[in-house]
Specification:
The complex is a heterodimer. By secondary structure, chain A is mainly alpha-helical. Chain A folds into 2 domains: 1-30, no CATH class; 32-274, Four Helix Bundle (Hemerythrin (Met), subunit A) (Up-down Bundle). Chain A has helices spanning 2-9, 33-62, 72-100, 104-134, 140-145, 156-163, 165-194, 198-212, 225-239, 246-271. Chain B is mainly alpha-helical. Chain B contains 3 helices and no strands. In chain B, helix 1 (12-34) runs antiparallel to helix 2 (39-61). Chain B starts with 11 loop residues before the first helix and ends with a helix. Classes of the chains: A mainly alpha, B mainly alpha.
Chain lengths: 278, 103
């Protein structure tokens, strides 16, 4: 409601302190406040990822030779993951259009499509991580913390972990941060699309994943992030159990596109610049 | 006030942008896998393609193209300025390590 007032008064309101009672200051940049808030968050989050990417590049420049462990299989997997994220951005745009038309059914359908692509990205990324760790790529403290038994694998990736640990640090640090953002994004979309009906679905996925992921898998403990997400989603819906409107869909779309945008830098820098030509 | 619905009649442009992003990704994969350039030149080319892709995502998918000029400039310049500062802090030091070692 406040947003509607802001929209109406955007070009006509007086400066704060001089208007009639009930007047608000004109919103910054002529956009509604939720959108400005999300843009400012994304600007700050881009600096987080920027710092990580600069740290990766720093390691890469001073480490000679830099490992190139990604064979055709890894590149193909990462390419499919990229296609999933790009396609999810398109379905997100279509969801925003449907929300603007007040077409609830198609808004929900397109948001669900976006969630499916995002989930496919997370699953493919998780499989890639598990495979690399099984083959010997690890980060000792990190792996111990997650309860994964130390790999006895020998070979190229085990040698990289031993001799160039900054590769593992950079790879796992960057991709884990991004995977966390994608997971938060899928939960965010679920809340906007399905509101309280999303909570039992998320709970079932969390419990099923907790039981199905074996104890020696790297995701056995991190999957409980879904439980934390469930708790936070429950609190949000308890505080604001409204029907989310087109502005909310557009704002969650901004977050989702940002996650896609960050991957456009991680994919070439982390994967393509570390490609092994066989 | 900007309203996304105003652009609904040109929905087709978003499919073109999506197609362009997929094609640019395919070009990146071919360049990366075939390693047609030296590593430094490859990094420059891949970063250039990434900047083009991110401009398409920000401009069209995130609708920045349709926001006010003030919003476009303030957000873009502030973020780019921070990246430029990071560049001048990180890269000369990384280069120094390659020539002088860690001191």
């Amino acid at each position: 409601m406040a947003d509607a007032t802001l929209e109406h008064d955007v070009h006509h309101s007086l400066p704060v302190g001089h208007g009639a009672p009930g007047d608000y200051e004109a919103p910054l940049f002529g956009a509604y406040s939720k959108k400005i808030g999300m843009w400012l968050f994304l600007a700050s989050d881009s600096l987080t990822f920027g710092a990580l990417l600069f740290a990766f590049s720093y390691n890469r420049i001073y480490t000679n030779p830099w490992p190139t462990p990604f064979h055709a299989e890894s590149i193909a997997n990462a390419t499919v993951m990229t296609a999933c994220l790009l396609s999810s951005s398109l379905t997100m745009v279509l969801a925003v259009f449907a929300a603007q038309r007040k077409d609830r059914a198609w808004t929900r359908n397109w948001l669900l499509g976006t969630m499916v692509f995002g989930t496919a990205f997370i699953v493919l990324h998780g499989m890639e991580w598990s495979k690399l760790i099984d083959e010997g790529l690890n980060l000792p403290g990190f792996i111990t913390l997650l309860g994964v038994s130390k790999s006895t694998a020998t070979g190229e990736l085990a040698d990289i972990s031993k001799n160039v640990p900054q590769f593992s640090q950079a790879f796992f640090g960057l991709t884990a941060m991004h995977m966390l953002h994608v997971t938060i994004g899928v939960i965010y979309l679920g809340i906007v699309a399905f509101r309280k009906w999303f909570l039992p679905a998320l709970g079932v996925i969390w419990i099923a994943a907790a039981f199905l992921i074996p104890s020696n898998n790297v995701f056995h403990y991190p999957v409980h992030a879904l439980g934390i997400g469930l708790l936070i989603a429950g609190v949000i819906l308890w505080l604001k159990p409204k029907d989310y409107d087109a502005h909310d869909v557009e704002v969650c779309g901004l977050y989702w596109h940002f996650v896609d945008l960050v991957w456009m830098f991680i994919f070439p820098l982390v994967y393509l610049m570390s490609t092994k030509v066989s | 006030m900007h309203d996304v619905a105003k652009h609904d009649d040109s929905k087709g442009q978003y499919f073109w942008v999506w197609g362009a992003l997929l094609v640019l990704t395919a070009i990146e994969v071919v360049l990366g896998y075939k390693q047609v350039f030296s590593p430094v030149r490859m990094l420059e080319v891949l970063l250039l393609l990434s900047v083009i892709k991110s401009a398409l995502i920000i401009g069209y998918f995130m609708h920045m193209k349709f926001e006010t000029a003030l919003m476009r400039w303030v957000i873009t310049l502030s973020v780019v300025a921070c990246f430029v500062i990071m560049y001048f802090f990180f890269f000369p030091d990384a280069g120094r390590i390659t020539t002088m070692g860690v001191k």
